[in-house]
Amino acid sequence: MTAPRDLLFVADRRFVLSDDGPLDADAARPGDFASLAGAVEPVAATAADAPARPRPALDPDVARLLSALRRGTYLDYASASSTAVDEAIMRTYLAADPPPAAEMPWSGPLAWLPHPAHGTGERRSAGGGRTPGIGRLLLSGFGHLRTASFLGLFDVVLKPVPSKGVRHPFDAYVTVEPGAAWAGLAPGTYRYVPSLHALEHLAAETVEAGIGAGDEGGRAAGLGTGVGLVVVAVFDRVHWRYREPAGYRDLYLDLGHLTATLDAVAEDASLRLTPVEPAALGAPVVALEREVAAAYRLEDRT
Predict the structure, then answer these.
(1) Which residues of 55-91 are buried (b: 16+ CB within 10 A; e: fewer)?
(2) Whole-model pTM over 0.85
(3) Which residues contact 149 (CB under 8 A, 6 or more apart)?
(4) What are the residue boundaries of the structural domains of the chain, listed by start?
(5) 75-110 pLDDT, tens per residue?
(6) Which of 102, 192, 209, 201 is nearest to 141 (CA)?
(7) What span, in angstroms and rounded, lies between the C-alpha atoms of 166 and 129?
(8) For 56, 158, 253, 262, which has the most beta carbons within 10 A of its beta carbon?
(9) CA-CA distance, 196 to 32, in Å (whole number)?
(10) Per residue in 121-145, pLDDT tens?
(11) What CATH number belongs to 110-300?
């Protein structure tokens, strides 16, 4: 292989560019980085700042790698060649595994939510149903707008909030206690199904759906008379495309877009979102490949 010329970041994955095309940095030899960055000698500590215990020497190959990464640039998607590079990488991933589904399959009974496109009128008297407002909140943060094609290789789901790489890694769950009649929903634990704009009523023993059940009927224990909104991150959706630790950071950048949207829509819909510890909503249990990213108590402000 000819000597590499530059280091390229594509979707947070490192590639060394050579005359033979992109070389995955994970498969690159230390010499590949050395020819790019040059040797970097570790700096010896002086007697004044030397620690009590001996400081391990920085491996020269690691030093060269870090130096190369500092010189790296991100793929310019405005260039004509960038699409071909990205497509080649995605084809490699597809040859090994298909992308994970944009949403989990549903099997439980459904509570259909009013769609904002059909009108915004709703009763706001004490004890009245606020289901349209809750539905609007869920649609604005998690709703399925339409399906699109990514480079003609696989389908992606477009949603109201932005997401890096159109990964949309978050699922929404709603918990309702018996005293929360204002919500217009039967008590229990629900999962939002974006493609249907509906809530799936989860059985008490359901765990694999992404949130653990509390007491009978899927109700979350300890919630009292409130309504809870739990946001669960699904790592597989991000990791399939972004195979670097930085993908975890980007997931939380996506969460910032989502939570800001939820706050704005809740305010406009006369709802209040109060961040709480997940344990306050019945200590939801998630599978290993998922994580509770945020939890809120939802209240009626009218």
Answers:
(1) eeeeeeeebbbebbeeebeebeeeeeeeeebbeebbe
(2) no
(3) 155, 156
(4) 6-96, 110-300
(5) 777 888 888 888 999 999 999 999 999 999 998 899
(6) 192
(7) 34
(8) 262
(9) 50
(10) 544 333 346 889 999 999 999 999 9
(11) 3.40.109.10
